[in-house]
Automatic annotation (TrEMBL):
Residues 1-23 form the signal peptide. This is Fibronectin type-III domain-containing protein. Keywords: Signal. It comes from the Eukaryota. It holds the Pfam family fn3. The keyword Signal applies. Belongs to the type I cytokine receptor family. Type 3 subfamily. PANTHER family: INTERLEUKIN-27 SUBUNIT BETA (PTHR48483:SF2).
């Protein structure tokens, strides 16, 4: 049953579907506990038929307090039923959820036939770029059409990209967002759009 319970919990976490939730008393992690001393957590799951599972699901919810950032922990989940006990160990690390501010000073200039060069500056509120570098994502579209083209940029630390294959005489809208290099946290909001018309070819 433990495997089934764990899979159900994962499905709830990924899909965000919580139909019926029962909460257990919050568990407070003693301050002296650490990676070398796993904290036991006992969870109970009420048996239900498969066809009724989507309508009625009981899940124990446990809260762990006083966890330290960037520290490895081992979670011990034990399922108790009439058939016996079953235990599953899961390791995890507590990470801060970071979301950079949007890049600034977005600039677009001609880069040759059918090309534009897009440049920007990192968000000024993001300190220690040498220690915590950012990566960027660019999106652009024709100004009169809603469909965006998104480009994952590299090398990751670069704040400049040349785009080719564009249509002369067309007006384009460009935006860029920033994210921590190792995908810790969330991507920033998109920067305000900047419009640029690709110069027409000279005859």
């Amino acid at each position: 049953m433990t495997g089934q319970v764990v899979l159900l919990l994962r499905a709830l976490h990924v899909c965000g579907l919580i139909l019926s939730v029962c909460g257990s008393p919050a568990l407070h992690l003693p301050r002296q506990q650490g990676p070398a001393n796993p904290v036991p957590v006992v969870g109970a799951h009420r048996s239900v038929h498969a066809d009724a599972l989507h309508r009625h699901l009981q899940v124990w919810v446990c809260q762990l307090d006083h966890l330290k950032l960037y520290t490895d922990y081992v979670l011990n989940v034990t399922s108790v039923s009439a058939q016996g006990n079953s235990t599953r160990l899961t390791s995890f690390m507590v990470e801060d959820i970071v979301k950079p501010d949007s890049p600034v000073e977005l600039r677009v200039s001609p880069g040759g036939p059918r090309k534009l060069v897009v440049e920007w500056s990192p968000p000024p509120t993001w300190s220690n770029l040498d220690v915590f570098p950012l990566k960027y994502r660019l999106r652009y579209r024709w100004s009169n059409r809603p469909r965006n083209h998104t480009v994952q940029l590299g090398p990751y630390e670069s704040t400049r990209v040349a785009l080719g294959g564009l249509v002369p005489g067309r007006a384009y809208l460009f935006q860029v967002c920033a994210m921590e290099l190792l995908d810790l946290g969330q991507c920033s909001e998109w920067s305000p759009p900047v419009e640029m018309v690709l110069p027409s070819r000279r005859h």
